[in-house]
Amino acid sequence: MGNCCRSPASVAREDVKSSNFSGHDNRRKHKSTKNKVITVLPDLKKENIEEKYIIDQELGRGEFGVTYLCIDKGSKEILACKSISKRKLRTAIDVEDVRREVEIMKHLPEDSSIVRFKEACEDENAVHLVMELCEGGELFDRIVARGHYTERAAAAVMRTIVEVVQMCHDHGVIHRDLKPENFLFANKRENSPLKAIDFGLSIFFKPGEKFSEIVGSPYYMAPEVLKRSYGPEIDIWSAGVILYILLCGVPPFWAESEQGVAQAILRGQIDFNREPWPSISDGAKNLVQQMLEPDPKLRLTAKQVLEHHWLLNAKKAPNVPLGDVVRARLKQFSLMNRFKRKALKVIADFLSNEEVEDVKELFGNIDTDSDGVVSIKELKAGLQKYNPQMAESEVQMFIEAVSIAIYYML
Fold it and tell me: Is 76 among the domain residues?
């Protein structure tokens, strides 16, 4: 699998908007760009991307655009091209999100832990971001595929993630959406570098500057994001959540609704009693606790995390397998995330803009008996209604993913 098509910042904001999180991003009321001819990157001349690149097979699809395999006609280099449809950029804020993503990718230095950005192009219909092709798969998929997964392996992954955070902060950037799906392996080799691939939610900051908009993915949000006053410390919290998941297979703050997740985050109670925590080293637990410190002023910085004794001595961390339970949990968690992305794809591909803006209408259409719950039967009928061309095998994959999610939540 190549680079998964990651949408602009508004995708994550729409996740929050459609949830029960309080105080969702009211900037969405900004004037619409519908039916307007817009220029996203005014400093670039408009050009047909196919004059410079051969656009090949589709690699991934999101709400706002599609990622393709592409080949540089001059150098013959194989790359990835994320094409963001202007038709899907419905507000001036959406446009600014894309513009800022390009600026940040140009601003960050080339590094083995960040996907290499080549250039941005714009034509009448889309903005195209051309970048390095990462074909080694997602982080959790690689872990699940391994038969031997240990604390030592988790420490190596965490070092890379925090190095990305440190680089961002050193260059005046808050990532704002650290999560496992935003890290891909460059290639399929065992020693492949792990790379951060998505900066669609990232933002420039100055020392002491605070932000208030609620952005990101619910499981990984720091408490100060929910309180609408935050700075770069939120990236350390998100990395701490990833570390907790890496070590036990489930998020530290879990609930059946996103409102419940938010409440759990604000309570801040971390469970170190479930398996396999009793057998995990004190050093790993200590680092998790310090990264998930509710007070951002007391939370470790990226530099301090990298200097923590557990990471400094990563090669000496226990090399005992964490067990099949952890790998099974990671697989289930990954499947649920994949199901959500698939659902967003269906919404993006087969519903009108008005329906995208009103997910409740979609739910009501699928919930045929109006009992407030979408059954497996109703889900299957709804998928086939909105995408009659969907193969039976794809429908079944949805059903299996939902079944796993339900089992996991119970």
Answer: yes
Of the residues 293, 309, 326, which one is the last residue of a structural domain?
326
82 is annotated as contributing to ligand binding: yes
**Terminal C-alpha separation, the chain:** 31
Residues 268 and 355 reside in one and the same domain: no
- Which two tokens mark 173? 């950037």
Q: Tell whether 1 is covered by a domain.
A: no
Domain around 282: 139-326
Quick check: is 2 in a domain?
A: no
Active site residues: 177
- Say what the pTM is: 0.73
Q: What is the pLDDT along the chain (410 residues), one digit of tens a residue?
A: 344 433 333 333 344 444 445 434 444 445 555 556 688 887 777 888 899 999 999 887 766 678 899 999 999 999 999 999 888 888 888 889 899 999 999 999 999 899 999 999 998 889 999 999 998 888 877 776 665 578 888 899 999 999 999 999 999 999 999 998 889 999 988 889 999 988 989 999 999 999 999 988 888 999 999 999 999 999 999 999 999 988 888 889 987 677 888 999 999 999 998 888 888 899 999 999 999 999 999 999 999 999 999 998 867 766 665 666 676 666 666 666 655 555 555 555 554 455 445 545 555 666 666 555 556 566 667 766 766 655 555 565 555 555 444 443 33
